[in-house]
Design brief:
Number of domains of chain A: 2
Largest interface: A-B, 63 and 53 residues
CATH topology of the largest domain in chain B: Fumarate Reductase Iron-sulfur Protein, Chain B, domain 2
Number of helices of chain A: 13
Radius of gyration of chain B: 20 Å
CATH class of the largest domain in chain A: Alpha Beta
Oligomer: heterodimer
Strand order of the largest sheet of chain A: 2-1-3-4
Number of strands of chain B: 0
CATH topology of the largest domain in chain A: Rossmann fold
Distance between the termini of chain B: 43 Å
Helix content of chain B: 40-55%
Order of helices and strands of chain A: EHHEHEHHEHEHEHHEHHEHH
CATH class of the largest domain in chain B: Mainly Alpha
Largest sheet of chain B: none
Bound molecules: iron/sulfur cluster
Number of strands of chain A: 8
Largest sheet of chain A: 4 strands, parallel
Order of helices and strands of chain B: HHHHHHHHHHH
Strand content of chain A: 5-15%
Shape of chain A: globular
CATH superfamily of the largest domain in chain B: Alpha-helical ferredoxin
Helix content of chain A: 40-55%
Distance between the termini of chain A: 34 Å
């Protein structure tokens, strides 16, 4: 299977460990991953505060670049915010076909055309549906049965469109995790918001939201995420959150492909666990 | 919860507020069920809950809504949007509120406005966002002292190799003023032209 991979800004800088482990796991599963040439920022949740049209044109530019590449393939995204932004283009054009002309009028300045022929896929969607739990289980060299893992989906992978899983009670990550032998922790907060950008603009509100997420994960050995922003909010502020909530809420937080990489026994430099800000040591000790 | 009495005979009511924000006018069909508020993780910190805000939009209380922090506290989680029994695209309307507040330069939420502006400046200039550069730009634009609260995080990120100080001192001139052609200047300008045509 072939994918046009869009790393996005976070995965090519602060969340490089997600990028590297994603490519390693997909490689192990036999996928062909080609990076979209000359991609640019999708506008995050910010472009729409400047202009609605810009919030569609920025992701459409990347999709148009993928359409221009050789061969067939889906547009693969690891960051949930980037994923929703790229899905948004097709969803809006479906609702209002006149938008297509406007988007292309803007893209003409870069000699690009967007038609919508490339399908947008999230990493989790690809792992769960293109490969599936059986293919994943078949690659497991080290069972994770010693671990209880809380699957954190977050918001923008399942909302608003719910294209790859249920918006209220998704289960695909549970299935992928179970395939590694891990016990799936019953995680009631799996789709509650981590505060996203509020961690920078309104920290006390975000600390409380993350506090709730970490409290609900008590009893699990780690939390697993599929988005750099979720990962950052869950792992980087655990000291602040513990003080704010008045209890120790430290817990390892791993990206899904990092955990799969442990199960596949991939070389450590492909997982880059030393970059995780909440120490993954307790997880590694349990598996040792 | 305290009740606030709003004067609906006030001359400041703006009846065109709703249409300006949500041209499809679906917002008129809101039944005030409160599902949006119940779904909203940051509602507790808002001065008007989402349900209250939507009613205020219907009534044309433009000044009150735009001067509130309610919509700046939205974390774009889409919970209200997927649960609203009327199928109103609520988050799109929140996006329109942010645009209107920024365009009309109202609202008490300088941090958010600076954050969004600094981010888009970097996108326009470089095409991609280098997080360290962006955060520096953002903190410089707000209150230089606010950066102190993030220093421990910055150091931890350096230690984990999450940020690198690329080019060292070369950063300084890049941060001072944006001049010359940006990577996405032409595209941004074209979008501005197209939007002006409407
Ligand atoms: S959920 Fe929808 S219908 Fe119910 S109060 Fe909110 S906006 Fe109105
Ligand atoms: S999208 Fe915004 S307003 Fe709606 S529930 Fe989420 S945080 Fe609240």
């Amino acid at each position: 299977m072939r994918y046009f991979y869009y790393p996005g800004c976070s995965m090519s800088s602060s969340a490089l460990e997600y990028d590297v482990s994603t490519k390693a796991v997909l490689g192990e599963l036999g996928a062909e991953v080609v990076e979209v040439e000359d991609w640019t920022c999708c506008g995050a949740s910010t472009a729409e505060t400047v202009s609605f049209l810009l919030s569609l044109v920025l992701p459409a530019r990347n999709l148009a670049l993928a359409e221009r590449m050789d061969g067939d393939g889906d547009f693969l995204v690891g960051c949930s915010a980037c994923y929703t932004n790229h899905c948004k283009v097709g969803e809006h054009v479906k609702r209002d076909p006149r938008l297509l002309d406007k988007i292309n009028a803007a893209l003409s300045i870069e000699h690009l055309t967007y038609t919508g022929k490339v399908r947008v896929r999230h990493l989790l969607d690809v792992l769960a549906n293109d490969f599936g739990p059986e293919a994943i289980a078949a690659r497991v060299k080290r069972s994770l049965s010693a671990l209880s893992v809380a699957p954190y989906y977050g918001c923008q992978i399942v909302r608003p469109y719910g294209l790859c899983d249920d918006s209220e009670y998704p289960t695909t990550m549970d299935e992928v995790l179970a395939a590694t032998g891990a016990e799936v922790f019953p995680y009631a907060m799996k789709v509650k918001c981590c505060g996203g950008v509020l961690m920078t603009t309104k920290k006390d509100v975000a600390l409380r939201l993350v506090g709730g997420l970490l409290q609900a994960a008590k009893g699990a050995d780690c939390i697993v995420t599929v988005c750099p922003l979720c990962q950052m909010n869950l792992e980087a502020y655990q000291g602040d959150v513990s003080r704010y909530m008045g209890e120790d809420l430290h817990i390892p937080v791993l990206y899904l492909p990092q955990l799969l990489g442990l199960a596949f026994d991939l070389p450590r430099e492909k997982l880059k666990l030393e970059r995780n800000m909440a120490s993954p040591r307790p997880v590694l000790d349990k598996l040792a | 919860m305290t009740q606030e009495i709003l004067d609906l005979t006030a001359p400041t009511l703006d009846r065109s507020f709703l249409v300006a924000l949500a041209p499809d006018e679906k917002l008129r069909t809101c039944i005030q069920c409160g599902t949006c508020t119940a779904s909203c993780a940051s509602a507790y910190a808002m001065e008007y809950t989402p349900r209250q805000m939507w009613r205020m939009v219907q009534l044309g209380l433009k000044e009150e809504v735009l001067n509130s922090k309610t919509f700046w506290l939205c974390s774009t989680c889409y919970s209200c949007s997927v649960r609203c029994p009327r199928g109103i695209p609520l988050l799109e309307t929140i996006g329109a509120l942010k645009r209107m507040a920024i365009a009309e330069r109202i609202g008490p939420y300088k941090e958010s406005i600076n954050f969004y502006r600094a981010f888009m400046d970097v996108v326009r200039r470089y095409g991609r966002v280098d997080e360290l550069e962006f955060m520096t730009r953002y903190f410089l634009s707000t209150n230089i002292f606010s950066i102190i609260g993030y220093v421990p995080l910055g150091l931890a990120m350096l230690m984990h190799g999450k940020v690198t100080i690329k080019g060292g001192l070369r950063m300084a001139p890049r941060l001072v003023g944006i001049s010359g052609a940006g990577r996405l200047d032409a595209l941004f300008r074209k979008v501005e032209e197209l939007e002006a045509e409407q």
